[in-house]
Design a protein that fits this description.
Elements: H1 2-35, H2 38-63, H3 79-107, H4 115-140, H5 146-177, H6 187-199, H7 201-214, H8 221-234, E1 240-250, E2 253-262, H9 271-288, E3 292-299
Parallel strand pairs: 2-3
Antiparallel strand pairs: 1-2
Helix pairs in contact: 1-2, 1-4, 2-3, 2-5, 3-6, 3-7, 4-5, 5-6
GO cellular component, one term: plasma membrane
Subcellular location: Membrane
Keywords: Ion transport, Iron, Iron transport, Membrane, Transmembrane, Transmembrane helix, Transport, Zinc, Zinc transport
């Protein structure tokens, strides 16, 4: 029941992200048309990308909850980091495109805009995006969902983008009304260059983290050390020489391949006893972290763990 409740909450949050992204697309493109602002147009394009990504995310959220089948023997969770990798690459390309376009605009003499109306958009977009990001981040703390986490980051980026646009419009409005109107057209493209460069580190980090999961790289040593410590505690009744653990993270799942190298004092009468050890260890580990999936092998020859 708890898992089903988390799944429903995840879908509810992702649907909220989808509907709000659609709303912001119409608002941004409408204001971009009225104000002739390249920065607002960029914000609208970003929201449009977020909308289509939200559609994909909602589809993936349904897929990753399905059990393994004949096509995907290890389930669908690997699709999650793949989608996040794709989303981060799209955002990176969008930022780079905006930077290059803005530099061209600066060299051509800038871009004038209706800054008073643009400021209204800036206030609306900043409050809206940051509020959605905060809400999704708070609600996602109890969920094991990288999809919701990345979506919250996406809205945070959009919120920072909108806040910076608002600040730039305020500066441009001041320049126009205090005798420096000739410099005002440079604010819009200059703002886009700064924003693009400032935003890039966030999708780059998401890209690298997702890529590590896609290629099966082990989690950081600090994480694996804690997992190995908990695992050894769950096997405290087993007389072993050494435990070899291989760990990988794929989306919301953490997979452990455990080789228990037993000593000569270890003996069992039936295979069921081994099953009971496996069940007890996995139950203890999943109580600590429900995302853990384990396979446990008992061996005498340490070379078989290599």
């Amino acid at each position: 029941m708890a898992i089903e409740f988390h799944q429903q909450n995840e879908k509810r949050l992702l649907k909220l992200s989808l509907y709000m992204a659609g709303l912001f697309v119409f608002v941004a493109f409408g204001f971009a048309l009225i104000t002739q602002s390249g920065a607002i147009l960029f914000d609208g394009v970003y929201s449009l990308i977020a909308f289509f990504m939200a559609l994909l995310t909602l589809k993936v959220a349904n897929l990753v909850q399905l059990p393994d089948d004949d096509r995907f023997h290890f389930g669908y969770t690997a699709i999650e980091p793949t989608l996040n990798l794709f989303k981060s690459l799209i955002i990176i390309v969008t930022c780079l495109y905006a930077i290059v376009g803005s530099i061209s605009s600066l060299l051509a003499g800038g871009n004038a805009a209706e800054y008073d109306l643009a400021m209204i958009y800036g206030v609306f977009a900043t409050i809206g995006c940051l509020a959605i990001s905060f809400y999704m981040k708070q609600r996602s703390k109890s969920l094991r969902s990288d999809l919701v986490k990345v979506d919250a980051h996406t809205w945070l980026i959009d919120g920072v983008l909108s806040a910076s646009i608002l600040l730039g419009f305020i500066i441009a409005y001041g320049l126009e009304h205090y005798g420096y109107a000739a410099y005002a057209p440079y604010v819009d493209p200059l703002l886009l260059v700064v924003l693009g460069l400032a935003i890039l580190p966030i999708p780059c980090k998401i890209m690298l983290d997702s890529l590590k999961e896609v290629i099966g790289k082990a989690p950081p040593e600090a994480v694996t050390a804690v997992i190995e410590k908990k695992l050894k505690q769950s096997l405290s009744t087993v007389p072993y020489k050494h435990i070899e653990v291989r760990i990988s993270k794929s989306g919301r799942d953490i997979y452990l391949l455990v080789h228990i190298i037993v000593d000569e004092s270890f003996s069992v009468a039936t295979v069921r006893e081994l099953d009971n050890i496996r069940k007890a260890s996995e139950a203890a580990m999943r109580e600590w972290d429900p995302s853990i999936i384990m396979d446990i092998l008992f061996i005498c020859d340490a070379d078989l763990a290599d």
